[in-house]
Amino acid sequence: MTIPTITLNNGVEMPQLGYGVFQVPNDETEAAVTAALEAGYRSIDTAAVYGNEAGVGRALAKSGTAREELFITTKLWNADHERPAEAYEKSLELLGLDHVDLYLIHWPTPGRDLYAAAWQGLEELYAAGQTRAIGVSNFLPEHLDRIVTLGGTVPAVNQIELHPALQQRATAAADDRLGIATEAWSPLAQGAMLENPVITAIAGRLGRTTAQVILRWHLQQGRIVIPKSVTPSRIAQNIDVFGFDLTDADLAAIDALESDGRTGPDPATFNAA
Questions:
Q1: Nearest 5°: phi and psi at 209?
Q2: Is 88 tagged catalytic?
Q3: pTM > 0.85
Q4: Which of 19, 41, 50, 88 is catalytic?
Q5: What does pLDDT average to over the chain?
Q6: Which of 4, 44, 125, 216 has a C-alpha 20 to 30 A away from that of 246?
Q7: CA–CA separation, 145 vs 89, rounded Å?
Q8: Cα–Cα nearest to 81, from 54, 57, 110, 102
């Protein structure tokens, strides 16, 4: 199976569909990532705060998959905004890698006002060739504009909560304006959209699962997406989304499901350290 790629603003190609390990316990992560790799995923998304980088690393090491075939993302946690280089080295140690392909600032935590300095730390890692691309996660337009006006590197990716009930149009438009790829975390709204009648009707007509329909909605609108499951059958189903298309009417019907249905913290006010 060939997964399409998105060319980031620095020319690096990133798989458009990846596998996320948010909320997967470390002792279950090796098996989950192994199942994902066996199903054909090559992009794996983790984070320091998830506490499962070691589990990801074990799965990668045992898989026998060539490093150049993999695209690995991890993230700088809020408490480490003042020491990104040290945090990055710790993540590499846990992952058992000499670099990750994409390193993100996990949250802006605007009340702490350290994300601009943290971004400059990521720029130093990138300039030194220690990571192939750098980006951000959960940044709103005002956070993006602030770091772009520093005059250095424009983030390659902004990973945000995005699903039919929370479409973040203003942030996605800011990403487009600045040449930043939008990546959707919680693309299935942590399961909250899987029984929506509009989506179930489309899925029934196409003979697909509701998760496959939602993922296809993301992909056809050009987003990067990282669904999560620990069930091997669902992991396999979630990558089987390239043999069908939604119609324009299907896309519009799902677009109309916006309800400000956030499942995670609000980046405007989330300041956890």
A1: -80, 160
A2: no
A3: yes
A4: 50
A5: 97
A6: 44
A7: 28
A8: 110
